Amino acid sequence: MTATETFADRLKKATWNDHEAAEHTTYLDALMSGRVSREGYGEMVAQHYFAYMALEQAGRALADDPIAGPFVSPELERIPSLEADLEELYGKDWRDKVAPSKSTLTYVARINQIADWPGGFIAHHYTRYLGDLSGGQVIRKIVERTYKFPTSAGVQFYIFPVISDLRQFKVDYRDKLNALELDEVQAKRIIAEAVLAYQFNTEVLVEIGKRLPEYLVA
Ligand code: HEM
């Protein structure tokens, strides 16, 4: 750690290896090269749905918390978008067709377990939403090109209509991370939880990837 390194810098640096591992799972590499069927993409959207249900439920419970509350922004909420995407991908009866995988159940259990620890919640919040606002925007372009959905339903998860400037939003988000008053022990615990959050995400993607032979096109 250097004297000028902020908490947001530390968090990114300490998790970037785990980011690379998540980004380069076999499944995401195949998705990013347009080789995953619509059904295979739908499986990831379904798994996102269960994770975000837990994350956003935890967020609502912490909305007035002095530490975690400032991170809980309604403009980030993904559940309505995920519901629209799932309806496009699976049809109106999508709720009967999707189920959490084993890895998602483990991830959700961890989110629920840390839901009363504001720092832990922030670690999970950061790992997902800052990712959706960053690499998620790259995924969006590929997904639009691959599946050519008739409307935005199918990729709404990656669209944040209420946030006019994603870049500025991320700058403000990092400012909030840097404004947390953390001692070294707390800072390290949050970083460790973010590493875990990446690992849960990677495991979810690895589990979907096991079905790639079914999902690969061309
Ligand atoms: C195809 C997959 C992915 C691509 C291409 C990608 C790409 C990127 C890029 C280019 C950035 C840097 C943006 C910037 O510096 O502003 C970034 C940041 C980030 N990504 Fe990803 N990513 C992918 C998958 C993921 C996944 C699966 C997660 C989480 C589970 C994730 C979480 C994050 C987070 C938290 C950041 C913010 C890091 C920070 O600035 O502190 N990404 N991603």
Automatic annotation (TrEMBL):
Gene3D superfamilies named among the record's database cross-references: Heme oxygenase-like (1.20.910.10)
SUPFAM superfamilies, per the entry: Heme oxygenase-like
Entry's transmembrane regions: none
The keyword Repeat belongs to this UniProt entry's keyword annotation: no
UniProtKB keywords: Heme, Iron, Metal-binding
PANTHER family: HEME OXYGENASE
Name this polypeptide is given: Heme oxygenase (Biliverdin-producing)
